[in-house]
Amino acid sequence: MNFDQLKTFLWVAKLGGVRRAAKQMNLSQPAVSARISALEEELGIKLFDRQKSGVVLTKEGLLLRSHAERVESYLSQIRAELTPSEEVKGTLRIGVAETIAQSWLSEFLSALRKHYPKLVVELSVDITMNLRDQLLSRNMDVVILMGPLSEGNVENIILPSFKLGWFCHPSTKNQDLGSTPIISFSRLSRPYQELMSELMQRYREVGQVFPSTSLSTTFEMIAAGIGVGVLPIQLAQRFIETKRLIPFNPGWVPNDLIFTASYLNDPLDHTVHQVAKLALQIAEEYDQRTNMAF
């Protein structure tokens, strides 16, 4: 028995099929099947029952999975504790929401490069729903998104939140939220749902609401006078300084945007855990610096 066999076994168990495991591990299907067969032969047990939809663990397979996950976690911890960060190699897939991309992402990537110079980073900027799906399908190692995620196999590190405020073009005369167009977050996002709920409760009629999946586009639309909008205050400062936006107070604002650095714990990758903690450190420094500027 060797670790490659156990690792292959775990991927087949998690993904429910040899083909999916082979794709995940960048191996051929015969290579994956051979490892599983060798493991079953050595242990003298059957690990999987084959079904039309894939494979499911037998009673013995469930027991082995428990042991194999502990072994994998221990090995990850050994590598994290004994390998200097500057010697850690591999590919780290990071997904971030656009709010993060426009705030402290560059500082985070710079710090990440300093701590892990041999780590190859693959970066994706997307909306929270897509980032969540990518993480759960194991196409991302860590995602920084509006959270926390509720799945039991996900760890969430709570990051500093972003306060929201209402903004409009300096020439905008109609600031009545019951009639003026409102530029908002993506229709699938939590802030959009909260905003619409609040608008419906506070106003008998609501004007046009334009959802946007792009935060930068939202800023530009409001700065062009197309409508008003609720935006992260920290990111609006440069528009205020150039007199492209002004804040206004309708008497209420939606809840703060809460972000988390989220990653899977089955098994827990200790390098990914350290990267998430680094994100927290950079986010806290950014939050302290920008709040002092206000």
Automatic annotation (TrEMBL):
Supply the alphabetized keyword list. Answer: DNA-binding, Transcription, Transcription regulation
Q: Which Gene3D superfamilies match?
A: Periplasmic binding protein-like II, Winged helix-like DNA-binding domain superfamily/Winged helix DNA-binding domain
What GO MF annotations does this protein's record show?
Answer: DNA-binding transcription factor activity; transcription cis-regulatory region binding
- SUPFAM superfamilies per record: Periplasmic binding protein-like II (SSF53850), Winged helix' DNA-binding domain (SSF46785)
Domain HTH lysR-type, by residue range, is 1-58
Give the record's family classification: Belongs to the LysR transcriptional regulatory family.
Query: What is the name of the protein in this document?
Result: LysR family transcriptional regulator
Q: Which organism is it from?
A: Marinomonas transparens
